[in-house]
Amino acid sequence: MPKLSFSEFFNPPDGSIIYRSRTSEAFMNSSGVLITRHFQVATPITPEEMRVAMEQLKSIAGSNKIYIISNIDYSLPASKEARDIAAVALPPLVGAMALVCSRPLARMGAKIFFGLKPQPYPNKVFDNPFDAEAWILSLQEKWQKING
Fold first, then answer.
1. Taking the model in full, what pTM does it have?
2. Cβ distance 66 to 60 under 8 Å?
3. For 93-131, what is each residue's pLDDT tens digit?
């Protein structure tokens, strides 16, 4: 199978269940990793949209931890209220999160944010989805060995 391009990596394959909102879309890849990408929108996610997104994530995860690779190239900074909603909802759901950003300035911003506000789950910022996927899959495999 030929290697996908950066943009192809974040496009859902035919037949995928796609979870869409005004600001992003997501799908599960064949390895059980949630792949997300943010759209180029004029306004950031609202607190109510964040609540809906977190409920949707809970339904996707079920009783399992979810592993996420997210393209944040077009992600806009969320309000403090929206961030607080995610800060409460994500820790019990997320096994690890890889953020992918091809834009150096945005990547630096994400690294600074996570440096200042450490998360209770592994997270890392990458410049390409392939390194992100290798990292996520290694953590997913370790978790599965430990937890059956």
1. 0.90
2. yes
3. 999 999 999 888 878 878 887 777 788 999 999 999 999
For residues 12 and 25, the answer to whether their CB atoms sit within 8 Å is yes
Distance between CA atoms of residues 96 and 124, nearest Å: 9
11 part of a folded domain: no
Q: Is residue 64 part of a domain?
A: yes
The 10s digit of each residue's pLDDT in 20-35 is: 999 999 999 999 999 9
Give the structural domain span for 127.
16-147
Look at the chain and report how many structural domains it folds into.
1
CATH number for the domain including 97?
3.30.750.24
Cβ atoms of 100 and 132 closer than 8 Å: yes
101: tokens are: 């950003």
Distances (CA, A) of 9 to 2, 52, 91, 104, 106: 12, 25, 25, 19, 19
